[in-house]
Amino acid sequence: MSLIVQKYGGSSVSDAAGILRVARRVVETQNAGHEVVVVVSAMGDTTDELLDLSAQVSEHPPARELDMLMTAGERISMALLAMAISSHGGVAQSFTGSQAGMITDGIHGKARIIDVDPHRVRTCLDKGKVAIVAGFQGMSRTTHEITTMGRGGSDTTAVALAAALNADVCEIYTDVDGVYTADPRVVPTAQKISKISSEEMLEMAASGAKILHLRCVEYARRFGLPIHVRSSFSDHEGTWVLPSPDDKIKISEGVALEQPIISGVAHDRSEAKVTVVGVPDIPGKAAMIFGIIAGAHTNIDMIVQNISTKGTAKTDISFTLPMVEGEDALAALRAQQAEVGFEDLIYDDKIGKLSLIGAGMRSNPGVSHRFFQALSDAGVNIDLISTSEIRISVVTRADRLDAAVRAVHQAFGLDGEDEATVYGGTGR
Amino acid sequence: MSLIVQKYGGSSVSDAAGILRVARRVVETQNAGHEVVVVVSAMGDTTDELLDLSAQVSEHPPARELDMLMTAGERISMALLAMAISSHGGVAQSFTGSQAGMITDGIHGKARIIDVDPHRVRTCLDKGKVAIVAGFQGMSRTTHEITTMGRGGSDTTAVALAAALNADVCEIYTDVDGVYTADPRVVPTAQKISKISSEEMLEMAASGAKILHLRCVEYARRFGLPIHVRSSFSDHEGTWVLPSPDDKIKISEGVALEQPIISGVAHDRSEAKVTVVGVPDIPGKAAMIFGIIAGAHTNIDMIVQNISTKGTAKTDISFTLPMVEGEDALAALRAQQAEVGFEDLIYDDKIGKLSLIGAGMRSNPGVSHRFFQALSDAGVNIDLISTSEIRISVVTRADRLDAAVRAVHQAFGLDGEDEATVYGGTGR
Q1: Which one, out of B4, B218, B228, B349, has a CA that is 20 to 30 A from the CA of A144?
Q2: What ipTM score was computed for the predicted complex, to two decimals?
Q3: What is the CATH number of the domain that holds A12?
Q4: In chain A, what residues touch B20 (CB-CB under 8 Å)?
Q5: Contacts of A78 in chain B (CB under 8 A)
């Protein structure tokens, strides 16, 4: 008997038919002899509908009340799923985040899990029931207020619960068959990856692959938990995201890691580039600039400092950041322009980021050559470059991004013969 | 400074505009120097939409999960109201039933309040904030499960909170201006009652007046709490429901009780009549029959036992009960027909009940004469009669009920000159 945590996203439970389909799958899993915990997101459009209502009554809704509002979404889907499971002959009990012991910090809207106390869930399983847990939500340890975890929160809930319950696997059900070598909407010949290391998946997620959220992969990697990303619309095997190959893989013999050179190509259209022009080239200025940015609670991605132009003793510093945080960062910098002594700020949100990920590239010196050659052959100009041991990322013009992704995908022989199937798209 | 508990029903918060209108009223009340606690129902159609979803996934949804589902409704409206209050410059905090300390028994779907521990609400008021509390829901003392209170639950929440907080008044906002001398949809010339005793209001509610639920009036009467029933669509004074005239009325000098002879005419179309035919006329048989009915958890209203027909030593017992509980009651009786020894059961759901209520009638012997004369002049046949000190009720044919109500209303001089305004209609 295994303990399996299954997470279903909003597109899998978008209507009654979807909920009944998920319920059947859950009951089948239990009937196959497993203990099952289900983490569920809000139904399809619920999140958007609730956000729309909130926008109608308030321009800047208080964060606490927004969390109270949004958590109604999973409350609805989890109760309906419990009912649907009983229609399929199973017995299930639903739990809110706080009932399931998801203890978070007190930051409304993007709370982080600081502890998981799943004793009510464990008791529920011990009674032979299916436990259904609301994703995305928890309770603050200090204030006892209801919190939500922001994007990727439901995946993170599932992985955190799986780790706390010492589950054998966390299955993330979504509207695609698994993780692809590139976004199938951009590269129709992208192929499903059958196994990928947590490390690579982390780079994929950080580079814009939306299928799994960074936090959830980080969590799974830390606890050595295998994730199986698959579609709730089919019974096909999906993608196994496996912890470090040094760890024992518990699941089955077929999933031992064999490292391909390249796992895939990820891209990201959500970033903007800020260039701080004419920064005095003296020690401490970069630290000052990034201190200001950090004070505005902005997450910076890539950073490039150009070589100081001879004689001027001035330099330019460029960095990328989420487009939605652009205004705050600019305002914070402008407020301290005199103190830092820079000349100008240039903001560019017409950029795209492309990343090539593969654990094999650290021992393959030819990878970066082939990468830049492919971009050059496709006539794509490169704006910024950054690398890690298993990733190369470049920033290009936004309107050249798709061509760049396709060129790189083809250059590394990732194209398959069939076109991938694409369904909807989800948020949480 | 007074402490005012305001309860808004679903029709008052049916959309964003309604929520903003309620928010403005709440902020105005606070700005006038009062402490304000708001109890809110689910938005307009939410309850029906959630019930519809549940019906799509389950024929007999587990009661625990149904409560979990339904409580999402108030969660949405209370969070939106808190946001809307902040848009109007106020500061509010929303509380679920369990956060507000509404402790109930464990009967899902019709839980009863057994304790109220409003310390979080009190703290919120002490900080100068408006407290918003989800109506209709609580938490079971023993199981810590989320419960709902069934019909009238939001009104009862408001009154129970008002009593626990020692509030000065509980304002029940609805879609009509107050309590009328009859249902304005049946009697267009019905007049708004400006003051009515809790005792009479209790009889009105028990007799089918839907504006206030029986449980809430009972609660207010027990705690000596004045209720002000009024419309959220206007600023008019509504109807004051005042505890016993012996109690000190705290509100204002204008509301001291002066007892009119008759308060109003109530009617009810939701009951059915069961006649148990040919019951052996020996002691203990009636107790046996009503024991069976009680075992089926059915609430009986009127009971009439006909005089035993000479020689047969048999009698007929008739009673009325909610139509929705009719089948269960009949099944329970049939299952023990042999033991009780009755001959037959007659079920009649084409009946209507009319009640005349007035604390003044106990000292006015002419009331019942005028009452029956009016019915007779209108050609209405009477099926059953029952009375209390301040009420006369009769059962008539359903298709004669409206005519009967109008005749009695006119006979007691209750008709006004203007027609009443009627808006929508709510549930919880």
Answers
A1: B4
A2: 0.79
A3: 3.40.1160.10
A4: 57
A5: 68
| A253 part of contact set with chain B, CB < 8 Å | no
- Using alpha carbons, select from B80, B110, B112, B78 the residue that is nearest to residue B95: B78
User: Measured between alpha carbons, how far is B68 from B53 in angstroms, rounded to an integer?
Assistant: 13
Domain that holds residue A77: 3-175
Residue A333 lies in a domain: no
A with B: how many residue pairs have Cβ under 8 Å apart?
Answer: 110
Claim to verify: residue B110 and residue B228 sit in the same structural domain: yes
Distance from CA of A141 to the nearest CA of B (A): 15
**Residue in A with minimal Cα distance to B42:** A72
Query: Domain for residue B183, yes or no?
Result: yes
Is A41 inside a domain boundary?
yes
Mind giving me the DSSP string for B106-149? Answer: S-TTS--EEEE--HHHHHHHHTTPEEEEETTEEEETTT--EEE-
Q: List, in sequence order, every beta strand (DSSP E) within A9-72.
A: 35-40
* Substitution target from A27, A47, A65, A132 for chain B, most B beta carbons within 10 A: A65
Instruction: Name, in order, each residue with C-beta under 8 angstroms of A166's C-beta and a sequence gap of 6 or more.
Output: A3
Smallest Cα distance from B279 to chain A, Å: 43
Residue A144 φ then ψ, to 5°: 60, 20
Cα A159 from Cα B397, distance rounded (Å): 64
Residues B276 and B235 in one domain: no
Phi-psi region of B109 (alpha: psi -120 to 50; beta: other; left: phi over 0): left
Contact (CB<8Å) B66/A53: no
Nearest-by-Cβ selection for A16 from B57, B73, B81 = B57
**Look-up of token digits 């990697």:** A221
Q: Which residues of B touch A54 (CB under 8 A)?
A: 79-80, 83
The tokens for A117 are 């106390």
Residue A246 lies in a domain: no
Split into its structural domains, chain B has a count of 2
Q: What is the pLDDT of residues B270-304, one digit of tens each?
A: 999 999 999 988 888 888 898 898 888 788 888 88
Contact residues on chain A for B79, CB-CB shorter than 8 A = 54, 65-66, 68-69, 72
Q: Look at residues A81, A126, A43 and name the one whose alpha carbon lies nearest to residue B62.
A: A81
Distance CA A92, CA A25 (A): 13
What pLDDT is attached to residue A346?
94
Tens-place pLDDT, residues B209-236: 888 888 899 889 999 999 999 998 888 9
Mean pLDDT of chain A: 89
Residue B307's pLDDT is what? 67
Q: pTM for the full model?
A: 0.81
A71–chain B Cβ distance below 8 A for any pair? yes
Do B175 and B316 fall into the same domain? no
- Number of neighbours of residue B45 by Cβ within 10 angstroms: 14
Give the CATH number for residue B401: 3.30.2130.10
Determine the residue of chain A that is closest to B20 in CA distance: A57
Q: Which of B154, B263, B163 is nearest to B212 (CA)?
A: B154
- Stated as kind and residue range, the H or E segment containing A386 is strand A384-388
Spatial CA neighbour of A161 closest among A107, A212, A108, A121: A121
How far is the C-alpha of B249 from the C-alpha of B240, rounded, in Å?
11
Distance from CA of B327 to the nearest CA of A (A): 24
What pLDDT, on a 0 to 100 scale, did the predictor assign at position B196? 92
> Are residues B104 and B197 located together in one domain of the fold?
yes
Q: Which two tokens stand for residue B106?
A: 């464990």
d(CA A224, CA A214): 15
pLDDT per residue as tens digits for the range A356-394: 998 878 777 788 888 999 999 999 988 888 888 888 999
Choose among B19, B57, B94: nearest Cβ to A57.
B19
Q: Is the pLDDT of residue B252 over 50?
A: no
